[in-house]
Structures are given as structure tokens and as C-alpha cells.
Write a structure and sequence with these properties.
Low-confidence stretches: 219-224
Radius of gyration: 19 Å
Structural class: alpha+beta
Mean pLDDT: 90
Strand content: 15-25%
Distance between the termini: 37 Å
Largest sheet: 5 strands, mixed
Length: 224
């Protein structure tokens, strides 16, 4: 990437993370470290050669680091540095802004992109008074969702204690949270399984709305 020769902080930020795919690599690492194969799985439209180059670029820029996990699993993983993790609010803001742009892709969301979408489309008013922990299991990936009114936290891994659990696939979860399919219908069809407190699970999954498209009057949530 050619330098901008511009001292502005925006230009310097773009010099570090403005190359094609760079911010999507960061997106895939927001919830924790990943191996190369896991990153490639989350970015299927990106060739492995380009992924390797972006990882080198981001490491050189100080955005991420690579280290080797010790026994019993000896594998190299990529992880955001403290400076790289400071991109989280930037990506959340970009996600909210971009969610109002026309949807032209028919591809599925990566699991981590779907978790980011939950963060950016959460509507606290729809979860008024709700407090609880829901375990989301999406194939080999597991996430803990903690909800307490205004606050929604998502972390990778299994919770010590959960009020409810939802086992499904990313496409079904996306359809349920954005109103294209009811949770009861997904359960009846065998596309989802709910354990524990079904009301907590249903209220959590009903707390997300896509924003109005850009150019429309108002900025309130829509079921889209």
C-alpha cells in the first residue's frame, strides 16, 4: 500500500489497516486468537496467499502478533495486540454505519461477523428488564452472551453457568434474530435446540433489529 504522505491521524490509520481485507482480519480476531486455518475459514473469499500477506502487514504495523500455544496443542495463533484491540469500537461503528447500506451479497456471514452484527444491532429497549446468560453453540464455535439491560457482552467459549442454551447454525440464527424466521418454527423444524430457560433465550434473540436503510426518514430500527 502506497503511503499517503499525509500527517493526519486518519491517513496514518489507513496506512496501517486500510488495505483490502485488513479490517476483516481484525474482525475475525476481536473475540480472541485464531489459527491460520480458522482465519481462512472465516474469510472464504480471501486467498491464503493474500491472508498470509495481510497477516504479515498487520504484524509489522503492530496490530497483531503471532505466538505458539504450548502443550498439549502446539500450534501458532494470531492475536490482536493492545493497540489492535482498540479498533473494536471503530469496527462496531463501521458495522452500524454499513448496516444501513444496500445489501448486495448473498453470501453467509462468518460466525465472528455474525457476533459483531449482534453487537451492532442490539436494541436495549427490546430487552428491558432482561438479565441472563445464554450459551450459543454454532457447530464447533461456542459463545457466551451476557445481557443486562443496556449492556450486551459476547465472549468466545463456554460459560461456567448459563440460564439457557441455543444450538443451531449461523444461517438459522441470523434468520431468527433478524425476524425472517420464528424461534419456535426453527425448533419445530429441528434447525435449533433450546435448553434451560426458553423465555430468556427467546427474549434475547428478539432484541436485535437492523437499522433503517440510508436515505430513509428517521433512524429507528426495522425488522429488515
Amino acid at each position: 500500500m502506497r503511503p499517503y504522505d499525509d500527517p493526519c491521524g486518519v491517513a496514518r490509520a489507513l496506512a496501517a489497516v486500510g488495505e483490502r481485507w485488513s479490517l476483516l482480519v481484525v474482525r475475525e480476531l476481536l473475540l480472541g486468537p485464531k489459527r491460520f486455518a480458522e482465519l481462512s475459514r472465516g474469510l472464504p473469499g480471501m486467498s491464503q496467499n493474500v491472508l498470509s500477506q495481510r497477516l504479515r502487514d498487520l504484524q509489522a504495523a503492530g496490530v497483531l502478533t503471532r505466538h505458539v500455544l504450548g502443550p498439549p496443542v502446539s500450534a501458532g495463533v494470531y492475536e490482536l495486540t493492545d493497540w489492535g484491540r482498540q479498533l473494536e469500537p471503530v469496527l462496531l461503528a463501521l458495522g452500524r454505519w454499513g448496516a444501513r447500506a444496500p445489501l448486495t451479497s448473498v453470501a453467509g456471514l462468518s460466525v465472528d461477523a455474525l457476533m459483531l452484527a449482534l453487537r451492532t444491532t442490539y436494541v436495549p429497549g427490546l430487552a428491558a428488564g432482561l438479565r441472563g446468560v445464554v450459551q450459543l453453540r454454532l457447530g464447533v464455535d461456542s459463545f457466551t452472551v451476557e445481557i443486562a439491560g443496556e449492556d450486551l457482552r459476547i465472549t468466545r467459549g463456554t460459560a461456567e453457568r448459563a440460564d439457557a442454551g441455543v444450538d443451531t447454525d449461523p444461517a438459522t440464527l441470523r434468520d431468527v434474530v433478524f425476524g425472517r424466521r420464528g424461534l419456535a418454527d426453527a425448533v419445530a423444524a429441528g434447525a435449533a435446540t433450546v435448553t434451560g430457560d426458553r423465555d430468556t433465550a427467546a427474549r434475547l434473540l428478539g432484541s436485535f433489529r437492523r437499522p433503517d436503510p440510508a436515505g430513509t426518514v428517521g433512524t429507528g430500527p426495522t425488522a429488515g
